[in-house]
Automatic annotation (TrEMBL):
It holds the Pfam family Glyco_trans_4_4. This is Glycosyltransferase WbuB. Coiled coil: none annotated. Residues 27-211 form the Glycosyltransferase subfamily 4-like N-terminal domain. It comes from the Bacteria. GO terms for biological process: carbohydrate derivative biosynthetic process. Keywords: Glycosyltransferase, Transferase. One of its GO terms (molecular function) is hexosyltransferase activity. It comes from Streptomyces cavourensis. The keyword Protease does not apply. PANTHER family: SULFOQUINOVOSYL TRANSFERASE SQD2. SUPFAM superfamilies: UDP-Glycosyltransferase/glycogen phosphorylase (SSF53756).
Length: 419
C-alpha cells in the first residue's frame, strides 16, 4: 500500500458511526467516538454520526441543547445527527430502560439519510447497538459493534436497583446487536468470553483498546496544587470521572474518614454525586471538584499524589474504565481498588503503573496510599511507567490504526460469515 493510500484508505466511503455519546462530551465514550469519526473524515471518508444530546457524565441535558429536539451539526468534517431522548437524573433499572427505549425510538424513527457503506456502533448504549444492527441489515452493509461495556453484565454486577431483571433483557439486546455482526471489536480481551457466550464466533472478535485521548501534563505541578488549594505537605488521593454505582466511590469517602491527614478529591459528575456528598458531610478532607476542562485536565491529575480507580467487588468482566488511559499519561501512581480477576486489574498490572488492593476495603486502600507517600522515589518510578506504557501501546495513532484495520477488514469482506 502506498503512503497516499495508507493515509486516505477510505476515500469517498460513506461511513456511519452510531454512538449515544459524542462531543462536546469530554469523558467516557464520547471522545473516542468523536476522534474516530473525525479521523475517518480526515482520511477522505464521508462520515456521519448518529448520536444523542450531550448529557454525560452529569446525566443532565447540556444547557445549549435544552430546547433542541433534532439537529444536524458539522464537527471536524463529520455530519452529526442528534436526536432528543430521555435523560434520567437518577439511575435504576427502570429509568435506564426508559433511556434506552427513547434513544432507540428516536434513532430508528429518524436515522440519518442515505445508504452507508458500513456502520460502526459504540456499545453501550444497547440502543446504539440495536440501531446500528438494524441500519446495517436494512442496507446490507458491514456492521461493526465495538463493546466498551457489557450492559447485561453491568446490570447484574453494578448494584443498580432492579438489575437482575434488567440483566436478562439487556443480554437479549446485546445478543441481537452482536450475533449478526461482520466483526466485533472489544476494548479488552477480558470481554471475549462473555461476547462469545452471546453468540459471536471468536474468529470474528478483534481487540481494539481505547487510546489516550488527552495530552500529557504541561503546567508546573506546584503551581497547580497552589491554585487548587492543596497543601504541599498533604497527600492528595484523587478520583476523576463518572460518579456512578459501579464505581463504588463510597470506599474513598470512608478512607478519608480513617485518615484526617489525607485529602481525598472527587473530580467529575454523575448520578451518585449527591449521595456521596451526603456521605461525606462533616469530613473537611473530602473535596468535590467539577470536571476539569480539556486544557487543564491532565495538569490536575499530575498535581495529585495518587490516582484512584475503584469498582464494586461484584464488577468483574463488564467494564474497563476509560479513565485509566488518562491516568497513565499523567505520570502519577495508580491505586486500583478493584476485583483481582477483572479486566481493570489486568490493565493496571500490564501497565506496571499502579498497585492493586481489595475492593470496598478502605483500610487496604489507605495502607497502599500511605506506603506510596512514605517512599516518593518508588511512587515516582511507578508513576513513570504510565507514560511509557501509553507510548508503547495506547497512543492515539496506534488506536486509530487498529480501527483502520478493523474497518478495512470489514469492507473487504474478510470478516463476514455470510451476511
Amino acid at each position: 500500500m502506498s503512503d497516499g493510500e495508507r493515509h486516505r484508505p477510505f476515500e469517498d466511503r460513506r461511513l456511519l458511526v452510531v454512538s449515544t455519546n459524542y462531543a462536546p462530551e469530554v469523558t467516557g465514550i464520547g471522545p473516542y467516538a468523536t476522534q474516530l469519526a473525525e479521523h475517518w473524515a480526515q482520511s477522505g471518508a464521508r462520515v456521519r454520526a448518529l448520536t444523542g444530546m450531550p448529557h454525560y457524565p452529569s446525566w443532565r441535558l447540556d444547557e445549549a441543547y435544552r430546547s433542541v429536539w433534532r439537529t444536524v451539526e458539522v464537527r471536524g468534517g463529520v455530519g452529526v445527527h442528534r436526536r432528543r431522548h430521555y435523560v434520567p437524573s437518577r439511575q435504576s433499572a427502570l429509568r435506564r430502560a426508559a433511556f434506552e427505549v427513547s434513544v432507540l425510538a428516536t434513532g430508528l424513527l429518524a436515522p440519518p439519510p442515505g445508504r452507508p457503506d458500513a456502520v460502526i456502533a459504540q456499545m453501550p448504549s444497547l440502543a446504539g447497538g440495536v440501531i446500528g444492527a438494524r441500519l446495517a441489515r436494512r442496507h446490507r452493509v458491514p456492521y461493526i459493534p465495538v463493546v466498551q461495556d457489557l450492559m447485561g453484565a453491568a446490570a447484574a454486577q453494578s448494584g443498580i436497583r432492579g438489575g437482575d431483571r434488567a440483566a436478562t433483557l439487556a443480554a437479549a439486546a446485546e445478543r441481537y446487536a452482536l450475533s449478526g455482526a461482520t466483526l466485533v471489536g472489544v476494548i479488552h480481551e477480558s470481554f471475549v468470553p462473555r461476547v462469545t457466550a452471546l453468540g459471536v464466533d471468536p474468529g470474528r472478535i478483534r481487540t481494539v483498546p481505547n487510546w489516550t485521548h488527552v495530552q500529557g501534563p504541561t503546567a508546573d505541578r506546584a503551581a497547580t496544587r497552589a491554585r487548587l488549594g492543596w497543601d504541599p505537605a498533604t497527600s492528595v488521593l484523587l478520583h476523576s470521572g463518572n460518579m456512578g454505582l459501579k464505581q463504588g466511590l463510597e470506599v474513598l469517602v470512608d478512607t478519608a474518614r480513617l485518615a484526617p491527614d489525607l485529602r481525598v478529591v472527587l473530580m467529575g459528575d454523575g448520578n451518585q454525586r449527591d449521595a456521596l456528598r451526603t456521605r461525606a458531610e462533616g469530613l473537611p478532607n473530602v473535596d468535590f471538584l467539577e470536571p476539569a476542562g480539556a486544557g487543564e485536565f491532565t495538569d490536575v491529575l499530575a498535581a495529585a499524589d495518587v490516582l484512584a480507580v475503584t469498582q464494586r467487588a461484584s464488577v468483574l468482566d463488564m467494564s474497563v474504565p476509560s479513565k485509566l488511559t488518562s491516568y497513565f499519561v499523567s505520570g502519577r501512581p495508580v491505586v486500583a481498588s478493584v476485583a483481582d480477576e477483572g479486566g481493570t486489574a489486568d490493565e493496571v498490572r500490564r501497565s506496571g503503573a499502579g498497585v492493586l488492593v481489595a475492593p470496598e476495603d478502605p483500610a487496604a486502600l489507605l495502607e497502599a496510599v500511605r506506603k506510596l507517600a512514605a517512599d516518593p522515589v518508588a511512587a515516582g518510578e511507578l508513576g513513570a511507567e504510565g507514560p511509557a506504557y501509553v507510548a508503547r501501546h495506547l497512543s492515539r495513532e496506534a488506536g486509530l490504526a487498529r480501527f483502520d484495520d478493523l474497518m478495512t477488514e470489514a469492507l473487504d469482506g474478510r470478516g463476514s460469515t455470510g451476511r
